[in-house]
Structures are given as structure tokens and as C-alpha cells.
């Protein structure tokens, strides 16, 4: 999983890390998620190729506050550069959406770098753009980039609509 994170960042994806990310730091970041996964605040799915190498991952962060348990956030959707263009990102996104809906989530949110391939993916997958914030995050090279925020309603809400 550390290798996937390294490849994705080196490919220019804005995932909260800069270009100087090393394998030890990437591995430590993944290990740091253990408690959130064990507590049920985070769910992580990984896709593997025939050789067993992790080629993609997506996570859902669940809100644990009483007023927000109906919503969750898609975070860190990654696909290895060698596995892109094969529908893996869409499959991972669909898996995360379905699992969130099964868990009672009715509203999903996410953010992505404006103009990135991921932005196009979310639009094609039925997500609604809610706005763009300029200079929101640094890309791996350290340049401020705008970020687009999206949401998607899942199933029926608590009021039946």
C-alpha cells in the first residue's frame, strides 16, 4: 500500500503529500489508520492485480458525531499509474458508495484537485459539484492548487425522501 501511495504522489496526485514522500513515511501513514479502521470510523478497500500487488484503494471516513452520522467522506481514491484506464477507479468508487449506503449513509462528500482526471471521474459517476476553493492545497510539487468539492445523495434520507 505504501508503494501505491508513492506511485500516486509521484504521478502528481494531490493526496496531502509532497514529492519528497518516502516509503517509510508512506508506510507509517497507512499504519496510522489502524485505530480508525478498528473503531469503524474508516473503511478501506484495496484492489490487487494477478500478482497480488495493490493497484488501487479507496477509503470512506464515517462521521461519528450524532448530527452527522448520515454522511461520510470519500478519501484517498488511488489507482497505480500502471492500472489506470481500466475502470478500476470507478469500480472502487462504486464499492465505497454501496458500502456507505449499506451502512446507512445518505450523503457522501469529497474533494479533489480542480482540473484533475479525478474531477472528471466524479462528474461521470453522478457526483454534484458544490464549489471550488482557490489555493486550497499544495500539489506534490508544492504549488497551491484550487480544489473542487462534490457531494452525492445515496438512497433515501431519514425523512423517507
The fourth-level CATH homologous superfamily of the domain at 2-111 is Gcn5-related N-acetyltransferase (GNAT)
- Cα distance, first to last residue? 39 Å
Give the radius of gyration. 16 Å
CATH level-3 fold name of the domain at 2-111: Aminopeptidase
| Strands ordered across the widest β-sheet | 1-2-3-4-6-5
Strand content: 25-35%
What is the multimeric organization of the chains shown?
single chain
Total of helices: 5
Q: What share of the residues lie within helices?
A: 25-40%
Element pattern in H and E: HHHEEEHEHEE
Pairing-aware structural class of the strands and helices? alpha+beta
CATH architecture of the domain at 2-111: 3-Layer(aba) Sandwich
- Give the number of DSSP strands: 6
* Main beta-sheet strand count, sense and barrel state: 6 strands, mixed
Uncertain spans: none
Q: What keywords describe this structure?
A:
single chain; 161 residues; alpha+beta; Aminopeptidase; 6-stranded mixed beta sheet; 5 helices; 29% helix; globular
